[in-house]
Amino acid sequence: MDTPPLKGTPVPRPATAADLPRLADVLADAFNDYAWTNWTIPTQDRHERIRALQLLYLKHAGLPYGMVWTVPDHTAVAAFLPSPIPDLPSAVLEQVTHAHGDRLAALLEAEELVAARRPVHDWVLATVGVAPTAQGHGLGRTVVSAGVEAIDGHGGTCLLETSDPRNLPFYRRLGFTTDALVSTPGPPVWIMTRTS
User: Which stretch is the leader sequence (predicted)?
Assistant: First the structure.
């Protein structure tokens, strides 16, 4: 896919370790009132828990094994991981477990239902977020397109999941199609894929 950036949109670049704290802030703000995180993360200290989780995943999975794309002012981020996703170290898994607190069982129950419906894929668009003050300017498309174009260079299928139906048109414009809608005890999950 060769999608030109929107006029005036910053050029995306791969993130570095130094970028990760700021990118975790962006993702924490973006997911602070998202249906899935509301279901799987306790209300108490939710914003801090989301930030901690995003930082863990970016640092221990996204950067070493996948691709993390951002823009110069850090207002947008998209992380892509290879499939299967590499196992996280036990110390990191303990932190993930702690962040989910008493919602961990709900997460695992929903994950079992969703996992059964995932088609075979090579990559996962694990997370994407745009700072609230920067939304509506094409930055989400910019960082997701950067990852999708890198995947297209090697061929393969990219999968994503969303619990917000408002996201579906955005992903469809980027070439993703809906494979399944999974009902869970919490929010529904749309599984979408894009094949190079």
Answer: none
At CA 163, angle to CA 128 and CA 80, rounded to 5?
30
Residue 132 has pLDDT above 60, yes or no: yes
Element holding 129 (H helix, E strand): strand 123-130
Report whether 143 contacts 12 (CB < 8 A).
Answer: yes
Query: What's the rounded mean pLDDT across residues 67-88?
Result: 95
Q: What is the mean pLDDT of residues 106-120?
A: 96
| The predicted structure's pLDDT at residue 73 | 95
Find all residues with CB under 8 Å of 185, minimum gap 6, and list them.
Answer: 106, 109, 110
Burial 182-194 (b: 16+ CB within 10 A, else e): bebebbebbbbbb
End-to-end CA distance of the chain: 8
157 and 120 Cβ atoms separated by less than 8 Å:
yes
Q: Quickly name the fold that domain 14-195 has.
A: Aminopeptidase (3.40.630)
Output the six-digit token pair for 10: 């910053």
Helix, strand, coil distribution of the chain in percent, nearest 5 = 45, 20, 35
Confidence of residue 7 (pLDDT cuts 50, 70, 90): low
Global model pTM greater than 0.90: yes
In DSSP terms, 125 is beta-bridged to 80
What's the pLDDT score for residue 196? 86
